[in-house]
Amino acid sequence: MEDFVRIVADPQLQRNADELKQANAALNSDLNGKIEDIQNLKHELEEAATKCREYQRKIDQLAENTAVLTTQKADVDKQVALLSQALEATKAELKTTQNNAAFLTDENKVILQEKAVIQGQFKQLQESL
């Protein structure tokens, strides 16, 4: 107890003690600020992690949609190829049909001319009898 009285009685020691109390209070205040900053950062981290998980789910969904669309596109491409082949075959068939129609039209003209000649000859034959 005697040492305590001597410490309290010494003004230099008292000033040192006061300075240490002030330094301690400043450090405690700084520490409390850092703790609050850490808590804020933890909260921001949690929010960022939640957003990250949401974005990852969206990315996964988009990847699934892309895979489905890619498969559908491949199917459509196959159908387009088949339809293109069918169209080309139909065009070729149409050209053949048009050629046949032109040939038959020409042949019909010849036949009609021959018929007219035969009918004329038949009429002359009838008149001669």
Can you characterise this structure?
The protein has 129 residues and is mainly α. The protein has one domain (2-128). It is built from two helices and no strands. The longest helix has 118 residues, at 11-128.
List the topology elements.
Layout: H1 2-9, H2 11-128
User: What is the 3D form?
Assistant: rod-shaped
Q: Specify the helix fraction band.
A: over 70%
Q: Would you tell me the overall average pLDDT?
A: 93
Biggest sheet: strands, sense, closure?
Answer: none
Distance between the termini: 173 Å
- Element order: H for helix, E for strand: HH
Q: Strand-residue fraction?
A: under 5%
Number of distinct beta strands? 0
Structural class: mainly alpha
Counted by DSSP, the helix tally is: 2
Radius of gyration: 53 Å
Query: What oligomeric arrangement do these chains adopt?
Result: single chain
Number of spatially distinct domains: 1
Low-confidence residue ranges: none
